[in-house]
Design goal:
By secondary structure, the chain is an alpha/beta fold. Helix content is 24%, strand content 21%. The chain has 10 helices and 16 strands. It has a 6-stranded mixed beta sheet, with no helix packed on it. The structure holds fe (ii) ion (FE2). Fe (ii) ion (FE2) binds at residues 89, 118-120, 216, 252.
Length: 355
């Protein structure tokens, strides 16, 4: 679970203890505490279910099971969070049958969903099915909720040249982009149109308004080889920096990561399906992992729920940061940032040793 709170905007300990009692679930909870207690609210965060059709009504059961478990935790919450942020890659191959099956399972939650596109949802038909099935108004949209400005982005677009080149081969385009380490794919980006939309959206917002950004890609440059990367990250960050506090909640990396750049806090989440190892364990491509990475043991492919779990994060708009990470078969970790990043459990090179 992820519990993002802010100080004027923050409480966390109570929710943390309460949620801790529920055990390890591949679902996150974000609590946004505000100065005015009546405005305090929470939302769930579930991502990267990768529902995969084998044939007809047969789907990969492991991915179904991880997602069902998260949905059932959400369904049993009392009180229910205001909505659920779904971070993309509900489908594996972008086909409507996978998206439909995922949403059918999700419907048991009884909580409205605010979704964004992942590359697996998108490249078969450039988001036509996912926008419809997720029920989102556009690739990029925003909404205000109890004093917080939420921005939901499609940050997995390919370059214009690449998209033009593959325009006539939707299946080939999907295959190119769905593979994690395909050099024939394209680096992710929000793209020119998306940047223009974001600028005009943020221009209208008061710079003291807390901003929470939903993005599939990290909006920072971590590891190009696996698209743990956003090509126009600097331009997006420049639009967010004028805000007193902003938080990017990103997905795609299938592991908790934390970073802070200026006024922007970056947090990622577990997948409900499977963990990716740390790119530092691979030597075939250069990487630029931020120093605020959170190593953990991984990954035992015989263990269905290895390196999935939950995280609580309390942020104070980038002034302070505290993450409590609880994954299967991993020691519980506590990470804090207060002008300086601290992780008592961190050992340099630990990720490489563990994998
Ligand atoms: Fe992804």
């Amino acid at each position: 679970m992820i519990n993002t709170s802010r100080r004027s905007f923050l409480k966390g300990a109570g929710a943390l203890a309460a949620a801790g009692a529920t055990g390890i679930v591949p679902m996150s909870l974000v609590t946004v505490e505000q100065a005015n207690a009546a405005d305090t609210f929470s939302f769930a965060w579930i991502t990267d279910a990768h529902i995969q059709q084998i044939k007809g009504t047969k789907f990969v059961s492991n991915w179904d099971n991880g997602f069902k478990r998260a949905v059932s935790e959400l369904a049993n919450m009392n009180p229910k969070p205001d909505f659920c942020y779904y971070g993309g890659d509900l489908a594996q191959q972008g086909i409507p049958a996978e998206l439909d099956h995922g949403m059918e399972m999700y419907s048991k939650a009884g909580v409205p969903m605010k979704a964004i596109n992942g590359e697996h949802d998108y490249f078969l038909d450039m988001g036509a099915a996912s926008r419809k099935i997720y029920g989102i108004p556009a690739d990029n949209y925003s909404f205000d909720h109890k004093g917080v400005h939420f921005v939901a982005l499609t940050t997995i677009r390919a370059s214009e040249e690449w998209e033009a080149k593959w325009a006539k081969d939707p299946h080939g385009r999907m295959v190119m982009m769905e593979r994690l380490d395909n050099p024939a794919g394209s680096p992710f980006r929000l793209g020119k149109e998306g940047l223009a939309w974001l600028k005009s959206d943020l221009d209208k917002a008061d710079k003291n308004t807390p901003v929470i950004v939903f993005s599939h890609s990290p909006i920072q440059k971590i590891f190009a080889g696996w698209n743990f990367w956003t090509e126009d990250a600097e331009e997006i960050q420049a639009l967010l920096q004028p805000f007193k506090r902003s938080t990017v909640l990103y997905n795609h990396v299938h592991q908790p990561q934390a970073n802070q750049i200026g006024n922007i806090a970056f947090l990622s989440n577990f997948s409900t399906a499977w963990p990716w190892p740390y790119p530092t364990t691979y030597t075939q491509a250069p990487n630029a992992l931020p120093t605020l990475i959170l190593p953990m043991n991984r990954s035992d492919i015989a263990n269905q729920r290895d390196a999935t779990g939950w995280v609580f994060v309390n942020t104070n708009g980038g002034d302070k940061f505290e993450a409590s990470i609880n994954g299967f078969d991993n020691p519980a970790r506590k990470v804090t940032w207060d002008g300086k990043f601290q992780d008592a459990g961190y050992t340099a090179g630990a990720a490489a040793q563990h994998y």
